[in-house]
Amino acid sequence: MRPQKVENKELMEGLISVIRAKGYDGASLNDLSASSGLKKASLYHRFPGGKKEITEMVLAYVATWVENNITDPLTNSNVKPEDRLATALENINTLYDQGNSICLFRALTMETGMELFGKQVADGLKKWIAAFRELGIDLGYNTAEADKMAQEVLVKIQGSLIIAKGLGTVKPFQESLAAIEKMYMKS
């Protein structure tokens, strides 16, 4: 029997959905297999390191997406800061499915996930902060203000995703994105 063929993007999106929903400890190989479109044997063949390797690949995939669609646009000095912010917020909206998806970092800060992937989580958060800090500086805020605002962005995003999930409405997430835009565009 020929191995199943699954496009990388489709594979990663399926794997991401399980890890977001269940975290590292809760995601079983059966769940990962079902979401990926691959049989367990094919999943093992593609990821011989098992669930840990799958999670590492998911983190790398998401990190690349965030870099290409959020942090790089935020720091692109060839584009007006206002346009950079608009692009980043639009892509954040896409990343979190308009507020319907929880953050992969949140899912991996529980139990074993933090022990195994804490460095990747911390590095990812630092990149978000650095990019939003740079945007704030480019918009005329001093370094301390820009740093505080950058951290507030993450608080607003993460907090609103939890509230949106708990209340069953994306409204808090959408309102947070609007509040982030307003916070930066005050000057």
UniProtKB/TrEMBL annotation:
Alphabetized Gene3D superfamilies for the sequence: Tetracycline Repressor, domain 2
DNA-binding region (UniProt annotation): 28-47
Record SUPFAM superfamilies: Homeodomain-like, Tetracyclin repressor-like, C-terminal domain
Presence of the UniProt keyword Amino-acid biosynthesis in the record: no
Keyword DNA-binding: yes
Pfam families given in the database record: TetR_N
Domain of life assignment: Bacteria
This protein's UniProt keywords: DNA-binding, Transcription, Transcription regulation
InterPro entries per UniProt: Homeodomain-like_sf, HTH_TetR, Tet_transcr_reg_TetR-rel_C_sf
Annotated ranges, domain HTH tetR-type: 5-65
Name of this protein: TetR/AcrR family transcriptional regulator
Species: Agaribacillus aureus
